[in-house]
Amino acid sequence: MSNVEARVAHPLPPPSSPPFGAGSGVRPGSAGKRGRRQWGFAATILAGEIVSSTLAVAAAALIVVACSRADQFGLIGRMQTQMSILLLLLLGISGALGLYRSNIRNPLERFRLRLTAMMLFVFAGTLPWIRQGPLLELAVVPLVGAVALVLGLWGEHLIRSRLMRRSLYGAPTVILGNGASSRVMARLLLTHPGCGLRPVGFIDDGACHEIDASLRQHGLDDADTTLPVLATLDGWRAGNQAEVVVVPDYEYLPRNPAALYRLGIRQVLLITPLGEFPSFGIHVRNADCFVALELGGRPHHSRPNLKRAIDLVFALLLFLLTAPLIGLLALTVKLADPGPAFYGQWRVGLHGRPIRVLKLRTMYRDAEQRLEKLLASDPGLREHWERYFKLAIDPRILPHVGSLMRRASLDELPQLWNVIRGDMSLVGPRPFPAYHLDAFDAEFKALRATVPPGLTGLWQISSRSNGDLEVQRAADLFYIKNRSFWLDLYILLATLPAVIGAHGAK
Question: pTM for the whole thing?
């Protein structure tokens, strides 16, 4: 068993066959520990939601009062009771949709729940205001919904980041089998903690699995993981070790379903690779003799004209708002290292066309000579550079101001002009230099060239600089296959907390 440290645990006495999550065969106290973890996670999310919803209600009330003559309409008096009702309505609808449950929904699914909750809230909350008060009061509920959507997403993103750093996010998960597919699945879950699944080990199913040729092609057949083999399928019981079993392939399923029922597990997930098909909008269809996944007839891609119009409006607004900050940073750069404060770097754009991306200078003018000198003196650093194209301690970066701009991505602000020009979009795969793209396979490079590069993207709000080439490839593939207006909206809203947290930035 390659690269897997086999530490077989002592099997527990075989219990009777319970249904998933029934708790039979679970050691005393394990259900209590599991419940405390789930309730703790749900309580943390709920507390953040109460804070963000309260701020949203207060902000909307202040905006409406400021835009009206409160002494004439008596808004302040009515706000005292109606705002409390709106707050309870907002929390109630979100809770009814399952937003506060301790589950394994990924952030994009939770964002769709937030959008649904906001639309239901606006519909239900507007009705009592129609027959009373001035027309201006009708703006209260949509304002509350919009602000709550943004603040709630930001709060959840920051909470989830803190929980992941403390290894408190995600359900303990075991993976069925110990072959190549299982080890690749473990690697994917370990590098994508946002999935909500925290792998703790493997279950030996007793089968001999061949290495998939596609896995070997991508260099994933020898996934480096030290997760233990907990026991065999017949001998292992969940106890307090895990809550979820992941089956990486249909062939891994045991012939007798009772073998899975005896595990005392809360949930079993069967992984179905979809290849190039988009994964949004999939529905499960049950028939008498099979289970089917209903795929959309065509990907729900954003209309190019609509996307371009949104890019132009928001890029112009953001450029005007950030122009003073860009000027101040440019002056600071010139004081730190005399020379041009701005520079253009050639990157690969839409259809492979070269574009000149504008940036604030964060490096010394002789940056390339400094880098080559360092890599020539340390083969280990050169290997790291060829895998990540990043260095933890980069001798090229200007002290203080350069590090600050790169950590907060402030050096990217001039690229708003590239968006206005039409070279880039607000959301999309980041424009890479040609030498960076050459590290990918030809098929992926061709697919990447079919969409315009973006100022921010899915990779930037997840791994950022911590992700290697394979993580970058996976994030870009997911975006390209599933791109839509709502996915762009989610990435735009999630960019600010990702920048504030600066997780993975270099």
Answer: 0.76
